[in-house]
Write a structure and sequence with these properties.
mainly alpha; 2 helices; single chain; globular
Length: 60
């Protein structure tokens, strides 16, 4: 059951990223997360791309 929820969550994340790009809310998955969440500057997320976050979420 947990594996199904995890797979569904990964799909939803991918869909939401695609919608955000289509709607112009995100320019590119290669953009740094801090472009959209500046409060994450000077943290472990500084320099991390949206794609990196997505790939990490999908792997886990």
């Amino acid at each position: 059951m947990a594996e199904r929820r995890q797979a569904a969550s990964k799909s939803v994340i991918s869909i939401l990223i695609g919608i955000a790009i289509q709607d112009g809310l995100i320019t590119s998955v290669d953009d740094p997360v801090t472009k959209y969440l500046p409060e994450l500057k000077n943290t472990g997320y500084d320099g991390v791309s949206i794609k990196n976050l997505h790939d990490d979420a999908v792997r886990n």
